[in-house]
Design goal:
The complex is a heterodimer of chains A (589) and B (249). Chain A has 589 residues and is of the alpha+beta class. Helix content of chain A is 57%, strand content 11%. The chains are: A alpha+beta (589), B alpha/beta (249).
Chain lengths: 589, 249
Amino acid sequence: MSYSAPVKDMRFVLEQVSGLDDVNKLPGYEDATTDIVAAVLEEAGKFAGEVLAPLNWAGDQEGAKWSEDGVTTPAGWKEAYQQFSEAGWNSLAFDTDFGGQGMPGLLSAAVQEMWHSSNMAFGLCPLLTQGAVHAINSHASDALKDAYLEKMISGEWTGTMNLTEPQAGSDLAAVRSRAEPNGDHYLISGQKIFITYGDHDLTENTIHLVLARTPDAPAGVKGISLFVCPKFLLNADGTPGERNDARCVSIEHKLGIHASPTCVMSFGDNGGAVGYLVGEENRGLMYMFTMMNEARLAVGIEGYAMGEMAYQRASAFAKDRKQGPVLLGSGNEGEGIINHPDVRRNLMTMRSQVEAARVMAYDCAAAFDFASKHTDDDVRARFDRRGALLTPIVKGWSTEVGVDICSLGMQVHGGMGFIEETGAAQYLRDVRITPIYEGTTGIQANDLVGRKTQYDGGQGIEELLADMRDTQAALADSGDEHCKYAAPVLGRHIDMIAGASRQILSEENPVLNAAIANDYLMMMGYATGCWAMARSVLAVQSEQDDDFKALKRATCRFYFDAIAPRAVGHYQALENVNEAHFSIAPELL
Amino acid sequence: MKILVAVKRVLDYNVKARVNAEGTGIDLANVKMSMNPFDEIAVEEALRLKEAGKADEVIAVSIGVTQSQETIRTALAMGADRGILVETEEEVQPLGVAKILAAIAAKEEPGLVIVGKQSIDDDSNQTGQMLAGLMDWTQATFASEVNVDGDSMKVTREVDGGLESIELQLPSVITTDLRLNEPRYAKLPNIMKAKKKQLDVLTPAELEVDIAPRLVSVKVEEPPQRKAGEIVASVAELVEKLKNEAKVI
């Protein structure tokens, strides 16, 4: 199935809703003008549609393969990766000092959406490199930066994140891998699991970032250090040389993302893998946390990006597939099932949530751009809070609804959707990992209740509510009937957010706050989505393209009427929470 | 040597063309436009010649509305050095295009002009030939292979019966066929640089070219709907139908 990048909607959100014109006034982002952004989106869309999308299904069927000699990726993967890095796509948002293009995260979010929509299993490779680059760039010594960054930014080498161990999943405090000091480096030993693109045949070197403990490190989270551990050690001239003692010993058999090798990595089977300390000892977990928001945003983007692809396929199928006399359209037999009201409802449910999630993700990316580049400390701090608040919502909600959307995409296909060759099933299998990795929805919900609401004393929420009230006022003051309609809808969601956060801030029993965390997260997702669509309906007033305007208005209206009310169910559930829900002994369950 | 490449802004090849309400042409309101695919091949060939050291500068020329600048920027993002837009709101037919390109060629003195063999909107397949005639230059149409050597070149042409190889003197006009090359994807740094490259805007009047249309479109209509097929019971019935209904045998 071909992928057609929704450049028009992306540009609308970037330019009219999420504030590209403010982001490109930030120092360092001056080049991100509207026309450059448009040109980048056009070309990225072409690449995603013509190079990555055609490999998606074949890659899923063939999958990555393991052997003693290493992991091989599916046919076509290596050539596509080479084209991808040669075209410079890997370098889009990286530091210009090391060959990056220095574009804002806001543009990068849109471009990443295209990679994930067209081929998520492929998109994961540059995504992991991005995390590794940022870890090195933010925390490593100049010597490490000089040795590794340029090649990783260009994409000539890829990066991995070696965090998880069998006993240390969501709880990284349980990490056991060892790092023994040995002259100017350390010798790393231990086993890591779930390492995305931990080994592959795409590039001449792979740079692992590894969490491990030094011999005298304190127990728990405060005793974990971060190391750079290349697959091939570098020669004096910087080229890859001797093989390091780090190997992929097997790959996982998974529900989805078959083409993305998920590796079991073994370090130090033959005496110890050479690793170089990033920053200082015992600060590894803190370094990882600084990148976590970005990684979580990226996974949130994956969630709705897969939804976009599922929508494109379902919509095309529904126009083509004919079953019975229809109630919409001409009412005749021989018209597509898109003219059945229930099928139409499915498509609108998919589309409206994708569009809301897109605004939320771009908002979050823009907030991080302001938080890192704005010249005023207070503005930076405020946007840092905004980005931090939106992150668990984007990660948690957009992936949960992403799964629902891909499931609906299969539903639109009827029985054919359940048949693998149709292709709709792959999106559902692939997207299913997104609510799990990079912190499960449960972890996101706890983060939202704890760090982002309670520990912050509700400040981030208050600021969000203030912005939402400004939008509500603008809607009410508008002469446009579509805006006027949205004002009270947004008002109801503002009240729910305020009520729920009050409940959390005043609740003294931590069990109850933990118990409502998921409902709070989902309610915040639907309500923030309502704000996203409210701003979209405001912005679309000045749109020249009548078809786009009508479609955006209809999609927003559907969201207000049919999707936003889902917040109410979650709100009532969190109001109803009580200890009786958790009083049964585990052995009875 | 300079190479001049003509790039036309047309309805994107993925978009289903619809006749406008007046029946005078294709509806172009709010539809995706992009570079004529044959012109992408022309740009690619010019860039390859430059990369092989056979040319020093590649100039992308477009003729049309202001938005045609985007098409030129696409060529610049692929690697062309500078652009020229001859801006006009008027319809420019192949003869007008050839005259404009001839006027620019007279000024720029390129060794080669490379154009697509046709554009996918009107499929005229005339501009390159007319241009060569106006300039009194050699021409190599439907090129599938080009080898430039000093002031001459060998070109393989896709003709009805197969392939024809010709050798000709520069300056010359090449029109590109589909198999000449596979156009590259623009590289990100070049996309960013494209905006800073020189793009001159001229008008047909400044070039003293008369672009008044010589042809009149009478009517544009959708092709007739294809009728459903029919399964016949026997060969005899098929022959009977071909003879008496379809009247093709």
